[in-house]
Write a structure and sequence with these properties.
The chain has 7 helices and 3 strands, in the order H-E-H-H-H-H-E-H-H-E. With 242 residues, the protein is mainly alpha-helical. The protein has one domain: Rossmann fold, CATH 3.40.50. Strands 1-2-3 form a 3-stranded parallel β-sheet, sandwiched between helices. Helix 3 packs across helix 4 and helix 3 packs parallel to helix 5. The longest helix is centred in the middle third of the chain and has 29 residues. Keywords: Glycoprotein. InterPro entries: AB_hydrolase_fold, CarbesteraseB, Neuroligin/BSAL. This is Carboxylesterase type B domain-containing protein. Belongs to the type-B carboxylesterase/lipase family.
């Protein structure tokens, strides 16, 4: 089970979130929705030893069986076998502990975060609502996380808050590069536009009674980048990466 996960103020015995969204009134689609994920959403599910050295297949099987048992009610063995088969690299005759770790992280990331987010995006977009989806795959150059794992859960928060533009402050210490700052500028512009207008590509005109602070900073290499909405036919999403 993930150590940190979303929760709903409802009784899960009586209200199923997916069922509620499928049959929701127009209140579910009157607002624009933005969803996003990092590459390794399950990073916090493992301890430092697992992350550094990996683990063997027996531990992988215990982890996946525990997750399946807590997430599903019926056909547990079939689901476990399907997940193990899907997330095993059968081209490698010998599975290295690091590779086993990577595939297990990918399975858990998809299971408890990515797949549910995509399902919410589908249920929101299928009725014509404006939906935007992103994958934050960028890695801070001066990072404590292993580069092999890609971006990890929460790594996008640094950029959404614009920390590279102010030196990180006490809670986000890092030696941010010029590229980190450029990514932060792009992310901030997208998110602030969305908060103001419901469209990450368009900023609303300033109110007449507010001072004019000038144009927003350029997004350097990201200038001109358009974030297309997520639709059930195209499933467009924005990849924020190197």
């Amino acid at each position: 089970m993930p150590r940190i996960g979303p929760s709903l103020p409802v009784d899960p015995e009586t209200v199923d979130p997916e069922h509620a969204m499928e049959r929701a009134s127009d209140n579910f689609i009157v607002c624009e929705l933005m969803l996003g994920t990092t590459t390794t959403e399950s990073y916090a599910d493992f301890d430092a030893n697992d992350i550094q050295y990996g683990f063997e297949e027996d531990q992988r099987n215990r982890i996946l069986r525990t997750y399946v048992r807590n997430a599903y009610v019926y056909h547990l063995n079939e689901i476990f076998s399907a997940v193990k088969n899907e997330y095993t690299d059968w081209d490698k005759p010998i599975q290295h502990p690091i590779n086993i770790r990577d595939s297990t992280m990918e399975a858990l990331s998809d299971g408890h975060t990515v797949a549910p987010l995509i399902r919410v995006a589908y249920l929101h977009a299928r009725r014509g609502a404006k939906t935007y989806f992103f994958h934050f795959g960028y890695q801070t150059k001066d990072s404590d996380y292993p580069q092999r794992l890609g971006s990890v859960r929460g790594e996008d928060l640094t950029y959404i808050l614009g920390m590279p533009l102010v030196g990180g402050q006490p809670y986000f210490p890092a030696n941010f590069s010029r590229q980190d700052i450029a990514v932060a500028e792009a992310v901030l512009l997208f998110f602030s536009n969305f908060a103001k207008s419901g469209d990450p590509n368009t900023a609303p005109a300033p109110a007449k009674d507010l001072p004019d602070y000038g144009a927003a900073r350029e997004r350097t290499r990201y200038k001109g980048l358009v974030w297309d909405p997520y639709e059930i036919g195209t499933q467009f999403y924005l990849s924020m990466s190197k």
